[in-house]
């Protein structure tokens, strides 16, 4: 089972035994091709995961050459898949249950509009039908059957992806208890020989009962008995047993805390957050069956005393999830859900991301951050070539009318920037370079450059103090390594950090950096007011990789990549999104973008996936042959000089030239199989 993050979700992926692309030939209705799938989890575990998830999917891909899939519009399907409960399904990925179509049929985008699948057109060239199966009640896919690859030139290749799910519908299932007299009641908790109770809570109350279930004499109870104590009490007829965990800090701090209480024939235990677990051994003799007969009370007690004030969520009893929200909807004094998740989890939003409350949890708003992802931690990076520039235009601080009698200096006199909070990462091998340039309506500017020797310079040009230069000379920063820069000015104090190390601290006597006009990354097009050093750096601008650029609440690089049509940003030259970390060892002198095909075959021509795969491999073999031939010619030259047998050596070399490539190619073709074809297709070679 694998876990991975996307922009706003945490996915769980369960692999099966055949997740690669698989080739099929020679199948017909009398001799069908069948593949069954074995997953890394049991059927019961998969069903439980799917049922509790918000959403699940599996990719289904069918690549075909004269091989029909569903035989639309009215024929009997030539391929189908089997899902949960061993049910046969006649729809394909991207379509809906009960509709014998593929994704292109619903979207009305099939190659031949007379059919509802691309493959059903029965063409001689390669095409495919690919989409997601997302109806949870039918997942996972347990078998695929194919019956139309036995005609002349008929061939197919299929792929069923791993089962992928996100979200836990019960993790944020919560109820808010607003009065001490409010509670939820559920059927009797059957825990005769074992009990396993877990939940999260948050409160500001000094005490209260989380849950209680009574019998004639027996009972079970979990409560916050004081601001720093959680108590698990149980009586099976031998007298009450109490397990108490004491916290060094208050637990009524309106933050989420985790509780797990367990009881079996050997011991009683209580766990609170990550504090030491309290364990009590069960008596060797006496009663051992817990006999309860009343309703289970959550958030209160049968006597309605010491009720709980606060929130409880994700309540599990012996592995069963209690639906607190649904019960709270019909109970006075209790509300479904729980506000204030950001008070507990807001610190998980990084790099200026803001925590946003949701009904069933929280999310991180990365709008004003230079980062993205579920927790605003994913860098946004791009490759710059010589001459590339990104210019972010700021709004004028005050409107200027044509008939205004005041001078421009009067208009902007109050628009003084009290701070600059600048952060970015860069990777380059070129000097001099202009990384960042900010100018004002007063022809002042702030420039960050790499000088000829690779030193980093921060240069302020101010109307009163003139040019101020701050040089970081701790090494050559144009060394093809990723460097992180932070420039913070609060009022008169300037702090510069490079690679998390404080490099410079300066106090201005006076600074009036005001009325910001624009911010440029890379080459500045309006360079009339630049000093000579900045002008030299601006000849080519910046060549290399820039990442996660932040200026106060503005993220200009992210705006250019994510919102170029709506943000006040202009891009000139070549700008290619890429990961700076992944190209750290690449030669940034030649900014080369390597594209990887999203097609499972890794092909450039959609009609001939397998042929193009062989062509890709042939390029590699050709390179190897070229090297071998070169070595042979060198040997021939040496022999001809020292052994005086020019003609015989020359004929021998010609024989080797003819035989070796031919033998190599025949050997290669004999050994190649579909899996090698698919894997090699995904690479790109430069010889």
From TrEMBL:
Residue ranges of the TM segments: 619-644
Keyword Transferase: no
Broad class of the protein's primary localization: membrane
UniProt key word Signal: yes
Domain annotation EGF-like: ranges: 339-377
Domain (Laminin G) ranges: 173-338, 400-580
Protein name: Contactin-associated protein-like 5
Species of provenance: Spheniscus mendiculus (Galapagos penguin)
């Amino acid at each position: 089972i694998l876990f991975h993050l996307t922009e706003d979700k945490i996915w769980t992926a369960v692999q099966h035994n055949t997740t690669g692309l698989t080739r099929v030939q020679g199948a017909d209705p009398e001799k069908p091709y069948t593949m069954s799938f074995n997953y890394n989890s049991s059927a019961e575990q998969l069903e439980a995961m799917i049922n509790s998830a918000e959403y699940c999917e599996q990719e289904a891909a069918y690549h075909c050459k004269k091989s029909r899939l569903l035989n639309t519009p009215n024929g009997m399907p030539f391929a189908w898949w089997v899902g949960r409960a061993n049910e046969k399904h006649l729809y394909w990925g991207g379509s809906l249950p009960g509709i014998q179509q593929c994704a292109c049929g619903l979207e009305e985008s099939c190659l031949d509009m007379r059919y509802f699948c691309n493959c059903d057109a029965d063409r001689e060239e390669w095409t495919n039908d690919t989409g997601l199966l997302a109806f949870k009640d039918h997942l996972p896919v347990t078998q695929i059957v194919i019956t139309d690859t036995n005609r002349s030139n008929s061939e197919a290749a299929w792929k069923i992806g791993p089962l992928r799910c996100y979200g836990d519908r019960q993790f944020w299932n919560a109820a808010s208890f607003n009065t001490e007299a409010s509670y939820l009641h559920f059927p009797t908790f059957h825990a005769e020989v074992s009990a396993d109770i877990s939940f999260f809570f948050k409160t500001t109350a000094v005490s209260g009962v989380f849950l209680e279930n009574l019998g004639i004499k027996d009972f079970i109870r979990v409560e916050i008995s004081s601001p720093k104590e959680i108590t698990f009490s149980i009586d099976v007829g031998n007298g009450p047993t109490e397990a108490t965990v004491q916290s060094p800090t208050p637990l009524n701090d309106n933050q989420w805390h985790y509780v797990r209480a367990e009881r079996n024939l050997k011991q009683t235990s209580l766990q609170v957050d990550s504090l030491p677990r309290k364990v009590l051994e069960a008596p060797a003799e006496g009663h051992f069956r817990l006999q309860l007969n009343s309703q289970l009370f959550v958030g209160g007690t049968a006597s309605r005393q010491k009720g709980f004030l606060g929130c409880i969520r994700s309540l599990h009893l012996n592995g069963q999830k209690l639906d607190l929200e649904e019960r709270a909807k019909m109970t006075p004094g209790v509300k479904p859900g729980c506000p204030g998740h950001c008070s507990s989890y807001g610190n998980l939003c990084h790099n200026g991301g803001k925590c946003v409350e949701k009904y069933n949890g929280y999310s991180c708003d990365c709008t004003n951050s230079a980062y993205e992802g579920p927790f605003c931690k994913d860098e946004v990076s791009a490759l710059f070539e010589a001459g590339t520039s990104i210019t972010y235009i700021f709004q004028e601080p005050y409107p200027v009318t044509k008939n205004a009698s005041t001078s421009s200096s009067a208009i902007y006199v109050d628009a003084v920037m009290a701070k600059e909070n600048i952060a970015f990462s860069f990777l380059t091998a070129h000097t001099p370079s202009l990384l960042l340039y900010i100018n004002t309506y007063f022809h002042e500017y702030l420039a960050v450059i790499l000088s000829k020797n690779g030193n980093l310079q921060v240069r302020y040009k101010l109307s009163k103090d003139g040019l101020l230069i701050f040089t970081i000379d701790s090494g050559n920063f144009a060394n093809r390594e990723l460097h992180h820069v932070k420039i913070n000015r609060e009022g008169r104090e300037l702090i510069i950090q490079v690679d998390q190390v404080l490099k410079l601290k300066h106090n201005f006597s006076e600074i009036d950096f005001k009325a910001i006009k624009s911010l440029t990354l890379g080459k500045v097009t309006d360079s009339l007011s630049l000093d000579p050093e900045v002008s030299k750096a601006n000849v080519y601008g910046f060549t290399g990789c820039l990442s996660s650029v932040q200026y106060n609440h503005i993220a200009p690089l992210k705006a250019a990549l994510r919102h170029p049509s709506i943000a006040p940003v202009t891009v000139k030259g070549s700008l290619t999104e890429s990961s700076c970390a992944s190209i750290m060892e690449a030669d940034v002198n030649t900014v080369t973008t390597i594209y990887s095909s999203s097609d499972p075959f890794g092909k450039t021509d959609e009609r001939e996936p397998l042929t193009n795969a062989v062509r890709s491999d042939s390029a590699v073999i050709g390179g190897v042959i070229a090297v071998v031939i070169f070595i042979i010619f060198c040997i021939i030259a040496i022999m001809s000089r020292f052994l005086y047998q020019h003609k015989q050596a020359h004929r021998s070399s010609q024989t080797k030239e003819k035989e070796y490539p031919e033998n190599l190619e025949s050997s290669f073709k004999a050994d190649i199989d579909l899996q090698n074809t698919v894997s090699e297709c995904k690479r790109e070679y430069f010889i």
